[in-house]
Amino acid sequence: MKRILIALAVLLAGFQFAGAQKVAYVNTETILAAIPEYEAAQLQLNALSDKYKAVVETELGKVENLYQNYQSNRHSMSASQRQNAENEIISKERVAQEKQKIYFGEDGIMAKKAEELLDPIRKDVEKAIADVARSEGYDLVIDVAALQGVVYKNEILDLSRKVIDRYNENR
Known about the structure:
This protein is mainly alpha-helical. It contains 6 helices and 2 strands, in the order H-E-H-H-H-H-E-H.
């Protein structure tokens, strides 16, 4: 994180020395919150996530029940019965983990759905940011939502409202 802030400071200093001093910022969280399509997509993703979480939790509940049953009955089981019960528990646990990976993994259903729903909106927001920056002659626009440790920002340099307006114009 310190490297990012140092790099940003060096970059800003370089712009000042080069004579390109027009810098502004946006808050993409504020911008996205003002877009009804983004909020609707988030609600859709949350509902889908809840559905998949319930499926995974059901599978894990089955594993937990099998394990509890095994724990209470293992002393009365033969060695082969214990082995079979342990294998069944392990197998069911793998199924639950696989479902979790299918739904929530890096290339899982949720990631693909989020990409499908949110990427077009994000690209349009990036285009609106670029349009506003170009039209107003800004050399650098920083997203304060992506930076931690911002201790001061002058509200005059906030382009978020203009970006929201430009986004709405382009729809």
